[in-house]
Design goal:
84 residues; mainly alpha
């Protein structure tokens, strides 16, 4: 049986490896592919927190779920704000 920690580690590995590969190939193929790779790299930590939040919600560990939801909210707000 696969544990949640192993599943989250695989999501992080696949996200980083695919994002880096897409970005590197994008420098030789097209700029759109490079931007897609950067987007994958940006969304990888977001997916990790979302998976942890879903896990905590299923286990009815509400304080940890609300903490994960707070982190997601900060990540979303931070991605839309431009701080110079």
């Amino acid at each position: 049986m696969v544990t949640v920690e192993e599943l989250i580690s695989w999501v992080l590995r696949i996200g980083v490896l695919s994002g880096v590969t897409m970005t590197a190939l994008g420098f030789f193929v097209s700029a759109d592919l490079a931007w897609a790779g950067i987007l994958v790299l940006i969304l990888t930590p977001f997916m990790r927190v979302a998976m942890a939040g879903a896990y905590f919600l299923c286990r009815r560990e509400y304080p940890f779920f609300f903490l994960a939801a707070y982190v997601i909210m900060i990540l979303v707000i931070g991605s839309f704000l431009r701080i110079n």
